[in-house]
Amino acid sequence: MQHVSRDFRSWVGGDVSDDDVAAYGPIFWLHHTNLAASGAHWQVVHSAVSMPEFILSATLEPFAVSVRDVLQMDKLAYSYDDCLFLKTQP
After folding, report:
1. Domain count, the chain
2. Higher-pLDDT residue of 63, 14
3. Which residues are CB-contacts of 9 (< 8 A; sequence separation ≥ 6)?
4. Which of 18, 27, 31, 44 is a good FRET partner for 4, with 20 to 30 A between their CA atoms?
5. In whole angstroms, what is the distance from residue 88 CA to residue 34 CA?
């Protein structure tokens, strides 16, 4: 996944293509919040899909948390209103 993000930022160019300063640019945050929203929507639509244990237990360095720890948005104190809409669909 990291290479996809880096490829996108290289395509955009400017400061966002430099790993050392990319997070200072607004396009970086637009890109990453879009990724987070897409992931949240996927989770709602595909709630019956389960991940293999080796992925769920993988540690996200350097933060010392697992994939399992960050999959529930309510525990991260954010949500997307349109995800509520998706939950009501057949």
Report:
1. 1
2. 63
3. 16, 17, 22, 28, 31
4. 44
5. 22
**Angstrom distance (rounded) from CA 16 to CA 54:** 32
| CA 11 – CA 34 distance, rounded (Å) | 17
Task: Please give the DSSP secondary-structure letter assigned to residue 90.
Answer: -
Residue found under tokens 């540690």: 59
| Contacts by 71-77, CB closer than 8 A, 24 or more apart | 71/43, 73/40, 73/43
**DSSP structural state of residue 89:** -
Specify the pTM.
0.63
